[in-house]
Amino acid sequence: MHRSSTAPQHPAAFAGIIGVAQRDITPPVGIFARNWGAAKHDVASGVHRQLMLVCTTFRDTDAGEPLVLIGADLGWWKSAQDERTLREGILQALGLDASRLMFCLSHTHAGPGTFSEDAGKPGGEYIIPFLQHVQAMAIEAATEALESALPAILSWAYGHCSLAVNRDLPEPGGNRYVVGFNPSEAADDTLLAGRITDGEGRVMGTVVNYACHPTTLAWDNALISPDYVGAMRETVESATGAPCLFLQGASGELSPREQYSGDTRLADRYGRQLGHAVLSALDGLLPAGKELVYQGAVESGAPLGIWQEEDYAPSVDLQAQMEVISMPLKDLPTLAEIEALWASCEDHVRKERLWRQRGIRKSLGDGTHADMPLWVWKLGGAFLAGQPNEAYSAFQIDLRAQLAPAAVAVINIVNGYAGYLPPAGHYQRDSYAVWQTPFREGGLELLTRTALNISHQLNIPA
After folding, report:
1. I need a labelling partner for 206 at 20 to 30 A (CA). Which of 172, 263, 363, 438 fits?
2. What are the angstrom distances between the C-alpha of 297 and each of 4, 302, 308?
């Protein structure tokens, strides 16, 4: 017998002390939930599906310092202070270093308001109590995950799902790009699925990393919803009997082909589509701690190569690094200038855009550069790269190509938010992502180089 370099082994698996916990974070009906400039409603009139928070913790030994990975069915942050208050409370309660927590938003566009300065709007009185509730549930879930953690193995499998399409569409008869299905451009359909298995072979939890904007439900929908993530989670959890943690990928230009709907059945259909793709990927995994080893040939009508499952020891390597990147900003109006424009604006859509721009400028400050953090974790032979902005899919494509055969999970809207990171070549376009982003051309490429440099450093044997 010998081990072949072409054997489909498990280079990405991690063996350690792993815990999983889940909490319901559905806000009250009546909370401010205006996420679309074209919406005619301000508050949520009901609930389509529960919003969930899932926490997974990782330690190399019982006494090791944990990594805490949290996914929440929320949209995006409009205030750096709101995000910082929530995250710092979690760090303090758990006694964690900032490098060891990633709080990841699913980016649903049918969620509640998370901006404390919207407290004076209809339903805004619920926002601050809701944020406090989310923080409490995150601490509770993380504590439970750490206390109930067991020796377990995290294994990864790549798959594919055609849910995501390119959404940068050259407007027919015009010179701008609209945010809608572009059938002439291919989309990254890569899916990464993780399975956490205890020593008895029981599935403790799953992890799903997929890049697609949850924008199925839009201005005609007044229900709180996780969008397609809800039915995806239901599909996966029903089959595995374990919590499912969703991590939004680098989806800057990716969305469902049919979107901006008020029909929750469409979001559920998309969720089942993704959920079945996840289950297909998970079903392709070998049992935890097993690999295929070539046994030799059996002579029959043809020489038959025989492979059999054998035990192997997954990596116990667990590392975390956070690095702050100084991102150059565009020549933007100052906060005072934006606030003056907002105060004098009478167009509802334009006023909403200015309010969002105000939030971004207030978060970044009036300087020429902004400090943007990047988290890179190494779990066995896998890497998790999380950052606050809406990176285009080139980010995950490049990292996965450069770091193969490692499994690579790339996560948008982690521990903050500011804007889009389109490729440098897109900055000549009249498109939403280009005029929305506060960052100068080259930000995506700088992020990619930094993530690769950190990953290569973490990959050097001690």
Report:
1. 263
2. 14, 10, 12
